[in-house]
């Protein structure tokens, strides 16, 4: 059976998976992103993991259609070069596509990670029955993948949907992108852990910060309410600009569950410009942490790629 390799490169972890044309993952390996290592060293690790994944498909090496990669932007999907993502600051002009193409005699395709996850949700996830939706990933950083009229809108170079670097509140200071007060600084997983830890006075995970919400710590409660406001306001911007049927929320912060979705949906119901837009649903992603590798692999399946205008 033909298959593809999906690679999801993130700010905190990397995943490599063997994905069948049905969207089923047959094997997957994940390991931490070590920011102390050079991009060359990390790419060497990724190549080794891919080689092991292919070797695990004994007798099926010729069935490999290609390698798809999802990586944070900014990047150029045409050349496959990654241009210094805020959460990967040492990855300056890294030729990811070229490096993988030199190691493997199969096509290599690269896409923004949020766009890749949107492809996965369109293919076999929460967006499979929708022609118009926005996938909002709230993880180490925040980004959006946009599907309009059944096609992925990735922009001229693959960088559409970088909503995490929309200015929301200048009081949060300087963002790594150079702007003041970006959404990423308020509501990303990294920001929630950092800001919550500073408020409480001890190192906390994002999950631990949310677990303290509503238990009498007024400053923390005000901060989490501000997170909900920021994500709600960002969602209204997406609704007003893109008119989606639904917003699909993925990434680690989405695991906080219904409280998050309810706050976002309530804000949309109150502030979306179009009365119909106020009925836009906010739903959880169905593929959880697998969306990145499944979407990356989807780039290699030509029939699906054509349907989504990759």
TrEMBL record:
Stored InterPro entries: ATPase_NBD (IPR043129), ROK (IPR000600), ROK_cs (IPR049874)
UniProt cross-references to PROSITE patterns, sorted A to Z: ROK
The entry's keywords: Kinase, Transferase
One Pfam family this sequence matches: ROK
GO MF term (any one): kinase activity
Membership in a protein family: Belongs to the ROK (NagC/XylR) family.
Protein name per the record: Glucokinase
